[in-house]
Design goal:
5-stranded parallel sheet, alpha/beta, two-stranded antiparallel ribbon, Rossmann fold, 13% strand
């Protein structure tokens, strides 16, 4: 139970830090960041073989955020896990920062792969996993792509390659939040049935509630047990989930904060802080 509580506290902390960072900058990718925070929490807090004190450990697991615009959530996760001071988050996208708008492996401690141009992250993840496979290394690779990102042909080329090479050391996670920059994905491009698509390509497919830490952890662990087969997890999420005022609103993709927005941000920051304190006190009295 204590481990579950710690994971919940970590998730709340990442949400709080992400809001504080975007508020400090005055604008940022809110919706797509919040739809993956639970997944990042489970990966970095429970699943991945990583050590913030040795970020370049050659035996570590690798993480690739193909939807690089969700960098704020990624950076907050790294800070919350101890890769760099939390105060660094307040420099997001400012001059001489180590936290650019999109992840850059040459600038940010803990970032394994530079991403930004949609579609390229999954291709790099496939290459990294293939490299580990042919070298008989035990490193695992975890890659998050967006449903809107699946507009890119390069994504499907990588998906075919992953299955062709049976890269069972790669876990692909699709953030199916049903929106992209211009609107709902089914209106802009296509209403994807990811389960059928990936199943037809021979993948081991699972779908999970992308807001449930426990369900995400159980689903990833099941996928890790599958061998000699490509694997994908469809995260059923909501853009800007856990922020009711912004959920499913197109404007949340990249939000420029108004005075009203700053008030809402403070409301949610206070809620997350209070819940963190409650859980910490509950854990201390057990």
């Amino acid at each position: 139970m204590n481990n579950d509580t710690k994971l919940n506290i970590l998730c709340l902390k990442i949400k709080k830090l992400t809001l504080e960072m975007i508020r400090e900058r005055g604008f940022g990718h809110l919706g797509g960041s919040f739809s993956i925070i639970e997944t990042l929490t489970v990966l970095f807090g429970k699943i991945m073989n990583i050590n913030p004190d040795q970020p370049n450990d050659p035996s570590r697991d690798y993480f690739v955020l193909s939807k690089g615009h969700a960098g704020p959530a990624y950076y907050s996760t790294l800070a919350a896990c101890g890769y760099f001071p939390e105060a660094t988050l307040m420099t997001l996208n400012k001059n001489e920062t180590c936290l650019p708008s999109h992840p850059d492996r040459n600038k940010t401690i803990g970032v394994d792969c530079t991403t930004g141009s949609l579609g390229q992250g999954i291709s790099q993840a496939a290459g990294i996993a293939y490299g580990f496979k042919i070298q008989n290394k035990s490193n695992r690779v975890f890659c998050i792509i967006g449903d809107g990102e699946c507009n890119e042909g390069q994504v499907w080329e990588a998906i075919q390659f992953i299955q062709n090479k049976k890269l069972d050391n790669l876990i692909l996670l699709v953030d199916n939040n049903k929106q992209q920059v211009d609107g709902f994905t089914e209106d802009i491009s296509f209403k994807y049935d990811f389960n059928k698509l990936f199943d037809s390509l021979g993948y081991y497919v699972q779908e999970v509630n992308g807001q449930s830490l426990k369900a995400i952890e159980e689903t990833i662990n099941k996928a890790l047990e599958v061998k000699d087969k490509a694997k994908v997890i469809i995260l059923n999420t909501i853009k800007a989930q856990s922020l009711p005022h912004y959920e499913n609103k197109i404007a949340s993709h990249h939000l420029k904060l108004s005075t009203e927005d700053k008030a809402y941000f403070q409301l949610y920051i206070d809620e997350f802080t209070n819940e963190m304190e409650r859980l910490a006190n509950e854990m201390a009295t057990r």
